[in-house]
Amino acid sequence: MERTILSPVVDRIISWSIDNPLSAPARYLTATLLVVVTGMVRAAFITSLLPWLLFIPIILGVALTMGRRTGLYAVVASALTAALSIPHFDATFWLTNAQWVASALFIVVNAMIVTVAAEVRAGFMRARQASADYRHLAEQREQDARQLAVANASLLEKEEQAKLLAGELGHRLKNLLAITQAVASQTLRQATDLPTATDALSVRLAALGRATDVLTASSWEAADMHTLARSVIDGHAGGVRLDGPPIRFNAQVSLALALVLHELATNATKYGALSNGTGHVDLQWAIRPDSTAADDPRFTLTWREVDGPLVEPPKRQGFGSLLIERSLRSYFRGLISMNYEPSGLVFTIDAPLTGTGAEVV
Length: 361
Prior knowledge:
Blueprint: H1 8-19, H2 24-45, H3 55-66, H4 68-85, H5 97-190, H6 194-217, E1 223-224, H7 225-232, E2 240-243, E3 247-249, H8 251-270, E4 280-288, E5 298-306, H9 319-331, E6 335-341, E7 344-352, E8 358-360
Parallel strand pairs: 2-4
Antiparallel strand pairs: 1-3, 3-8, 4-5, 5-7, 6-7
Helix pairs in contact: 2-3, 2-4, 3-4, 3-5, 4-5, 5-6, 6-7, 6-8, 7-8, 8-9
């Protein structure tokens, strides 16, 4: 099989000449020095050989490493140097007719050699450029493949997240619709007429909407107790004093707390401490250690009405009482009480923090 690549030595020489190009004056000066040194060697040591023989390798090397123009210059310089080393003083024009013919043939043949060598050099340069382009293209394809793989992985991850979000959204929507249905059902069941039911349902759904706004702001992960309470009792902000550490509850507990706080604020406005213009409400919550289980703290919340009119227990169970019985007790597995003291209503929660979906910030 024929060889299709250059020898390593020639490859390195041509590669070095391409990577380290000489200026035009430097190329011609180098070619001149090589021709002169070759002529001196030929004249001093190899006088018996043809005068042009030693110049051929020099001409070939110059053409391969410096290009066609410098190679042709080396041909002419070699022919002149060889002519200077074989003078015939008895000849009319320095050389004999045979020597002039030989010199002319030397120039023609070596010009052809220079042309071929220059084409080899050009082909080598094209091959180097093609190899560099191929490597660049291969690297680009590899980079594109990596980017595509990352994009595909990201897309798959986004699709999984979208599926999870869709499922979570459906779950939360079902919970919200269940709470809305329960609120509407109890409101309509306890109302004495349609206008009363409409008004009560409107304000309760509005409170539920404000609670969902707080949850939406946190991507429905959890709601801060202070923010939740403030959003629900926003219309009574001047009469309700909040005090408690940062704590967050999950969506279900937050909605239940929001409805209970709304009912307490509404009843306080109608019948309790917020109805006479002089009373107020202290809403306090805290995280306290459990005397029986040191590793399970307790959550306590107190709604205390102060300086309001004399209160009495209701004759029938209202919406707030039902909400506490059916909703809060399922989340806060502890003591939940509503005491109608002469000084004002006191609502308390005292339950283990574990199981409430709470997160202490």
